[in-house]
Specification:
This protein is 6% helix and 58% strand. The chain contains 2 helices and 15 strands. It has a 15-stranded antiparallel sheet that branches. A hairpin with a 2-residue loop joins strand 6 (117-130) and strand 7 (133-145). The longest helix has 13 residues, at 2-14.
Length: 280
């Protein structure tokens, strides 16, 4: 159960990826679009660390168990097709500390994971209105073919306005009678954000995941300065009867960004480290 939250959190990270193709989109070359991607715009060596706390509730709404997991993501490689992350997790469950083996996750710029096939097509244009601000967007459909399943997303994409994907509806598996539908909407832009001792600008995204088992509602805060962009997340899980069965919270602990081609001897990469202050 707790591991499923980690999977969902990693999926949330991909929702703010900028859609790319190996061809040209909006008259821009892939390298220009790659530089706006929430991970790929940084260089290998970039990393972030988050803490996720999951509370499972009993039938009366009381906390039945609490599990804490820290996840570190390291940017290993970036190229024209995508990027790879090394993910390390440590869990505290029932007083026991468990460290799992590192995993390598390879992602394409359409949201493909570990070799999945993705394609994209533009179907029109629209304006997304957020708190009175009208943002011109491209309407695009993304289809990702995984192992035995197909995910189809319709997105409203702005190449200039973070978090770029301002609206997304995804259905999986496509065409099935019982599907999981995820809808994510940017509900606030350019919000003040005090993050790890620094003043930043953030965007808020409301995500709803509906399946035959119930509904998961998630409020996320994203910042373009942070690898992967996600800095906090609160989530409530309800069963099909509407009863809350699980609550969770994700917080950013620290991050480091590497800017520049550090592997070239004539170039010195810039390193920036941000972390929570340690109480004295």
């Amino acid at each position: 159960m707790h591991g499923s939250l980690i999977h969902r959190s990693l999926l949330y990270l991909s929702w703010c990826l900028v859609p790319l193709l190996t061809g040209t989109i909006y008259g821009q070359k892939p390298i220009a679009l790659r530089q706006t991607n929430s991970w790929a715009k940084f260089s290998p060596g970039t990393r972030k660390r988050v803490r996720i706390v999951v509370q499972k509730l009993d039938t009366k709404g009381n906390i039945e168990s609490t599990a804490t997991r820290e996840t570190q993501s390291f940017l290993e490689q970036v190229n024209e097709k995508g990027y790879s992350l090394r993910i390390e997790t440590t869990s505290d469950v029932a007083g026991k500390r468990i460290t799992t083996d590192p995993q390598i996750v390879r992602r394409g710029y359409l949201g493909e994971i570990n070799g999945e096939l993705g394609k994209i097509r533009t179907t029109g244009e629209t304006n997304v209105v957020i708190n009175g601000l009208s943002v011109p967007c491209q309407v695009q459909q993304i289809t990702i073919q995984g192992t035995g399943t197909t995910r189809v997303s319709t997105i409203h994409y702005s190449p200039t306005r973070f978090p770029h994907i301002l609206h997304r509806v995804m259905k999986s598996p496509a065409g099935a009678a019982a599907t999981t539908m995820i809808q994510a909407d940017a509900i606030a832009l350019d919000m003040p954000l005090h993050l790890l001792g620094a003043d930043k600008i953030g965007s808020h995204i409301l995500t709803t995941r509906r399946s035959p088992l119930g509904t998961i509602s998630t409020l996320e805060v994203h910042c373009s300065d942070v690898p992967g962009s996600l800095v906090s997340l609160t989530s409530t899980t309800r069963d099909k009867a509407g009863k809350v069965t699980e609550r969770s919270q994700l917080d950013l602990i620290s991050y480091r960004v590497v800017i520049g081609e550090g592997r070239q001897p004539t170039t010195r990469p810039r390193l920036r480290l941000f972390q929570r202050a340690t109480p004295r």
